[in-house]
Amino acid sequence: MTHWIRFRNAGGSIGFGTLDQHSGRVVQHEGAMFDRPRPTDISFAADDLTLLAPCQPSKVIALWNNYYALSQKLDKAPPQHPLFLIKPPMSVIGPNESIRRPKSYQGKIAYEGELGIVIGKTVSGASVEEAEEAIFGYTCVNDVTAIELLQQDPNFAQWCRSKGFDTFTCLGPAIVTPGNGFDWRTANVVTTLEGVERQNYPLDDMIFSPAEQVSMLSQDMTLVPGDVIACGTSIGVGSIKDGARVDVSIAGIGTLSNVLAV
Amino acid sequence: MTHWIRFRNAGGSIGFGTLDQHSGRVVQHEGAMFDRPRPTDISFAADDLTLLAPCQPSKVIALWNNYYALSQKLDKAPPQHPLFLIKPPMSVIGPNESIRRPKSYQGKIAYEGELGIVIGKTVSGASVEEAEEAIFGYTCVNDVTAIELLQQDPNFAQWCRSKGFDTFTCLGPAIVTPGNGFDWRTANVVTTLEGVERQNYPLDDMIFSPAEQVSMLSQDMTLVPGDVIACGTSIGVGSIKDGARVDVSIAGIGTLSNVLAV
Predict the structure, then answer these.
(1) Which domains does chain B have, with CATH numbers?
(2) Signal peptide position in this chain (chains A, B) (predicted)?
């Protein structure tokens, strides 16, 4: 498995490359992450870099009710097709960036730790096999939600608004490519709030697998490199106090850490 | 008022420029439409060009229940804040491009004629006055909907899916800048199906005005140049038979014509 990151270096330049988790060294690459990236002879200590969101999606497709445990807890039947909303590109932030409370909103803000699928190829109408090949890798997602807005209007569930605010899609720290030691089927999503574990659920409880999601969603809309599908969350969602830190960890990917700014 | 268009010329090159409606001539511009475009000495007869969607939004924000007449007909209270969903960039097509029925869907496909606001400046947390200045212009929108999917799942209204398919956001034919003869307050949206009028509603029946929409939405999320807000539709929505043509016309902007491909 390879860990791909985007970063800003000490001089302020933005780049991307691969992170060696043992040595902590980053090898800068040139070209494009999703189109024949080539290693350069420039490398950095990861500690000297500011990590950015590892990709810049044209859209983030966020699933609801995609885990059997949560569907049982909510007493909602598992869906026949992925149920989703779309989060806008400007909602994306990277590791260690602050989640900002909307000025207009004083209600509860919820964390949702999730697996994120990162698309590597333009794909439309894909079979499950083709979809598997279109998956570049996986990252951690905190799908932040202004939860009290969701049902504020009795006639219209405000999924896009409650999840679409600037800074409400935390991505990172890295994109791990599948194979060579990383298999989502054996991983858990672990979410901690101020260091206390709140979510710890197995990814193999997923209703629609990553390749099934990519295949089914690609029947609806063309997916392009860098797009992210947030696979939905499971039980243990809760709210973040102002100033509190949320860590979303998936073994093999890393830990995505973000604070809700005071 | 100026009519901005994007086009492909006979040689296959993509460009943008201004259309003189009397002479039918297009003056190609260089630079960027939203950042100090400069006229070139190249011009074309509009008839020799293929019109494209007049902008390439990073997101399309589509409002629901934004006209008093429709809210009365639906017996839903006017909302306190714009109710919206997000349509992905790949859903956008231009004038005369075909709407494509999703292979997976045999149900009714609805037209919705709407006014589209095109954003000209990056804007966040804008006052209504600042929002007014961030509006580059207006275009026609056909907000196409796979209407039978919307309530297919009893637990989750599928707004993003039913409206997010490739080719389900028709934009054009031009973006008209406000002032000098164009005022949305005095215009109607007229939608015809196979030449028969189905919608004809005044824009001044809008619940949230364009500047109010831009101001309120910009409190939630940063809007960027080229983004489109579809202002919602009013009464007269209906379904399109395969092969039928829908024309959305707004006096001063033009007519947006699209066929649902057989």
Answers:
(1) 1-51 (2.30.30), 53-259 (3.90.850.10)
(2) none
